[in-house]
Write a structure and sequence with these properties.
heterodimer; A: about 170 residues; alpha/beta; Rossmann fold; 6 strands; B: alpha/beta; 6-stranded parallel beta sheet; two-stranded antiparallel ribbon; about 35% helix
Chain lengths: ~170, ~200
């Protein structure tokens, strides 16, 4: 079976995603590198996650599909601009690697990690969640369809159980 | 520094004169929105009524999606202050079709003309800022072609640079504080987006 991060890359390519926005992220790093070396995808590093929502709106105005890759710790930065997906009514897709979730060791990650589904729901973002590697491809594919065929703002939560517990060398 | 003398409305009219299908215009919320609408509402204008701080990043997404069109972002100093990091993101991409024009009146116009950070320092208890200079910030972010315009004699060159010069082009224009009529475009964001895409792509 292929690696779930490679599966996401395949889905993004299959759905003609042209712009990929990210901040540095260990969970997404393999996917980001695949996008950076792709000829069909432009990859942009952001200074803050909220730029990704504005970029996605601009890309859609210009006829291109995009995706925002971020950690749950960055979701709070985007909440105000998430409203743009409702006022402009444009398709929006974000893939979120969760922290402060399953077995997290860093107490600083919990507030935003635990708040992530609630604040996204409050802004009317449709949530998908996945914690099994074998379900990643189908879930991201469905989320992408909800976004670009169904015209929704959609977030996929890639749960910490899937990504693995970061322990900085501790047992 | 002497007080600004340039007036934003005739200036923006000049910048947008003869706008055709190759010019895509995004305006930041508040005065810049009213300014581009005063110059003549058109489907390929995307005037924002909110989303403060998002204008430059939105312009970048559009410029990358439409590399053969000219994308012009017109916004104010308050909006630019809220999205300064996006200048560094623009610099990482160096889009040659993107121009950014910040109309800097050193005030938060929509909330009652409070001083922004671009106001001079030591300018009294309520009017002081930090003398923040966006042209230096943009250059420091990696947008080499960055400058500041203060005088009517520089306007013709400004218009040329914003409309045709290989980008990314960044210009701050110091403009007067004025009390002007609201000239409002349609407010419905979905409608503004759909008419823009219809005109650009032939589908909403």
């Amino acid at each position: 079976m292929s690696d779930w991060r490679d599966d996401i890359f395949t889905v993004l390519q299959d759905h003609d995603i042209k712009q990929v926005y990210h901040v540095p992220d260990a969970g997404h790093s393999r996917l980001i590198e695949a996008c950076q070396t792709s000829n069909s995808i432009r990859t942009l590093a952001l200074t803050t996650e909220e730029e990704g929502v504005a970029l996605a709106a601009g890309a859609w105005l210009g006829g291109q599909r995009s995706v925002l890759l971020m950690q749950s710790s960055g979701v709070g930065n985007t909440i105000n601009l998430m409203g743009l997906t409702k006022t402009l009514r444009f398709p929006f897709l974000t893939l979120i690697t969760m922290r402060g979730d399953y077995g997290e060791f860093n107490s600083w990650q919990y507030p935003m990690g635990q708040g992530t589904p609630k604040v996204l729901e409050a802004m009317g973002v449709l949530l998908y969640s996945v914690d099994k590697a074998e379900e990643v491809k189908a879930t991201v594919d469905a989320a992408t369809r909800s976004a670009f065929n169904g015209g929704q703002a959609v977030a996929v939560l890639l749960r910490q159980k899937l990504i693995g517990i970061k322990n900085f060398g501790k047992k | 520094m002497s007080k600004p003398t340039l007036q934003r409305r005739p200036l923006v009219k000049k910048i947008l004169e003869g706008a055709d299908d190759n010019l895509l215009v995004l305006a930041g919320l508040g005065s810049a929105n009213w300014d581009i609408t005063n110059a003549g509402d058109r489907p390929l204008n995307m005037p924002l009524w909110g989303a403060m701080g998002a204008t430059v990043a939105m312009g970048l997404g559009l410029a990358l999606a439409q590399p053969t069109k000219r994308v012009l972002v017109i916004t104010g100093d308050g909006d630019m202050l809220m999205g300064m990091g996006s200048l560094a993101t623009v610099a990482t991409q160096q889009p040659d079709n993107l121009a950014i024009c910040v109309l800097d009146n050193e005030k938060f116009g929509e909330t009652g003309n409070q001083a922004t950070h671009t106001s001079p320092r030591n300018n009294g208890p309520t009017e002081s800022g930090a003398g923040t200079d966006f042209s230096l910030i943009a250059r420091g972010c990696g947008i080499a072609d960055s400058g500041i315009v203060r005088d009517q004699s520089e306007v013709a060159q400004l218009v040329k640079d914003l409309r045709t010069k290989a980008g990314p082009v960044f210009r701050v224009v110091k403009v007067m504080v004025e009390k002007l009529d609201f000239v409002m475009p349609p407010q419905d964001g979905a409608h503004l987006k759909d008419r823009f895409r219809q005109a650009l792509l032939g589908r909403p």
